[in-house]
Design goal:
- The protein is elongated, with a radius of gyration of 29 Å.
- The strands form 3 sheets. The protein has a 6-stranded mixed sheet. It has a two-stranded antiparallel ribbon with strand order 3-4.
- About 30% of the residues are buried.
- The protein contains 8 helices and 10 strands.
- The chain has about 270 residues and is α/β, with parallel strands linked by helices.
- It folds into 2 domains: about 190 residues, Ribosomal Protein L4, Chain: A (3-Layer(aba) Sandwich); about 70 residues, no CATH class.
- A hairpin with a 5-residue loop joins strand 1 and strand 2.
């Protein structure tokens, strides 16, 4: 399976054979599990102060023999704050009281990360990469990318030397202008408490390593993300658990995919 290679001017500079990882079977079930696992690792850990709502002088005064007992006084026998001369204060400690403890607070010991076996995650990652070469996934209703060239898009290594955003934007406009406009026009302001903006995903550019200039020069283009091969995640290739994101690989990154098994299995998660 061969694909055209585009140089930094957006012109066809030759052809290249795709690695065998693109021949993998697409497994949406594994991809969904891997994306949910990636998302769970970004959750903020929850917990509460153990003594929240309990740091008070309130105590239970229900026993008949206790000092200042509430028995037979027509009042609820609940823990109340201590006041001088045996008087009763406000109800505290219980969940229904003002400034009382929470009934079911977030538990620190709760496991919020959904772990996944490394070999299973590797299979999902290879499956998600293979989906980027299937036009039916890329342009399907789940992803809805607007593209008129063969997928995936292959860029020459000189593209990684582009240090200005306008240069990268000009390159992408020559190849996938319609999809860039779709991402830009689809940007809407959130009305929920999350705030910020929500924008559709456009091209994901995969480079060889973290020293590439593209990591900075392309990150401000709406819908465009850049990642090196070692940091590649299934959630980037299949946002929202739907495989087939429009992806562009540099020639060096394409060669690194042959070492994908080694990179994933030796990564410290």
């Amino acid at each position: 399976m061969k694909r055209k290679v585009y140089d930094k001017e957006g012109n066809v500079a030759g052809e290249i054979e795709l690695p065998k990882v693109f021949q993998e079977t697409v497994r949406p079930d594994l991809i969904k599990r891997a994306v949910l696992s990636d998302m769970s690792k970004e959750y903020q850990p929850k917990g509460n102060y153990v003594w929240a709502g309990l740091e008070t002088s309130a105590k239970y005064r229900g026993r008949k023999e206790s000092y200042a007992s509430l028995k037979n006084r027509g009042q609820a026998k609940l823990p109340r704050t201590v006041r001088p001369k045996g008087r009763m204060g406000e109800v505290r400690k219980i969940p229904s009281a003002v400034k009382g403890r929470r009934a079911h607070p977030p538990k620190v010991e709760k496991v919020i990360v959904e772990k996944m076996n490394k070999k299973e995650y590797l299979k999902a990652l290879m499956s998600a990469i293979a989906a980027t070469s299937r036009i039916e996934f890329v342009t399907g209703p789940s992803r809805n990318h607007k593209v008129s060239v063969d997928v995936p898009i292959i860029l020459s290594d000189d593209v990684e030397t582009l240090s200005k955003t306008k240069e990268v934007h000009a390159l992408l406009r020559k190849i996938v202008e319609e999809d860039l406009l779709r991402a830009k026009k689809g940007r809407v302001k959130r009305t929920t408490r999350l705030g910020g903006y929500k924008e559709p995903k456009s091209v994901l550019i995969v480079v060889k390593d973290k020293n590439s200039k593209l990591l900075k020069s392309a990150r401000n283009i709406p819908g465009v993300d850049v990642v090196d091969v070692a940091s590649l995640k299934v959630s980037m290739l299949a946002p929202g658990t739907f495989p087939g994101r429009l992806t562009a690989y540099t020639e060096s990154a394409l060669k690194e995919l042959d070492r994908l098994e080694e990179i994933v299995l030796h990564k410290n998660n």
